[in-house]
Amino acid sequence: MPEIEVKKDYDELLQLVSFNLDEEEFGVDILKVREINKMMQITKVPKSPHYVEGVINLRGRIIPVIDLRTKIGMVKKEYGNNTRIIVVEVMDKTIGFIVDKVSEVLRIPSNITEAPPELVTGINSEFIKSVAKIEDRLLILIDLEKTLTGSETSEVNLINNNQRG
Asked: Which of 44, 72, 89, 123 fits a disulfide with 54 by CB distance 3.0 to 4.6 angstroms?
């Protein structure tokens, strides 16, 4: 009996939180996002990596905060009224990422995404999972697991552990 190929009438939907760094629009998987907060008091941590702004106390939990602009190779800038901390779960760790502004929650079909071009200018391309073409704009999807290398995850854990003790 020949195999029957079942064609899907739908594409898998990606649910994303979109945010901006300068004029660039980025997206992360909504399932990784725990919450989005306005800028708050960040406590500096001595000898922390250049991309770590410090730690915040979020309802009794000490969470390391990373300036995503600095981390992906963009120029640092002053925080404004729209600056947000996106609290995410990455490799079983809770981390805050500072972004210029959070735009919206999007549901897009996965078939409108494609691999990033080989030469991506302006930011470190190892963080880019894919690029989505939405109407008249491009949305860069970030792979949160790749924003921190193994040794960087250890550094962030060390900061987190030192703040508890």
From this structure: 44
Q: CATH number for the 13-164 domain, one of 2.30.29.30, 2.40.50.180, 3.40.50.300, 2.40.30.90?
A: 2.40.50.180
- Quote the distance between the C-alpha of residue 87 and its chain's center: 9
Cβ-proximal residues to 68 (8 Å cutoff; 6+ apart), any chain: 21, 97, 98, 99, 147
- pTM exceeding 0.85: no
| 74: number of Cβ within 10 Å | 17
pLDDT in tens, 77-122: 999 999 999 999 988 889 999 999 999 999 999 899 988 776 554 4
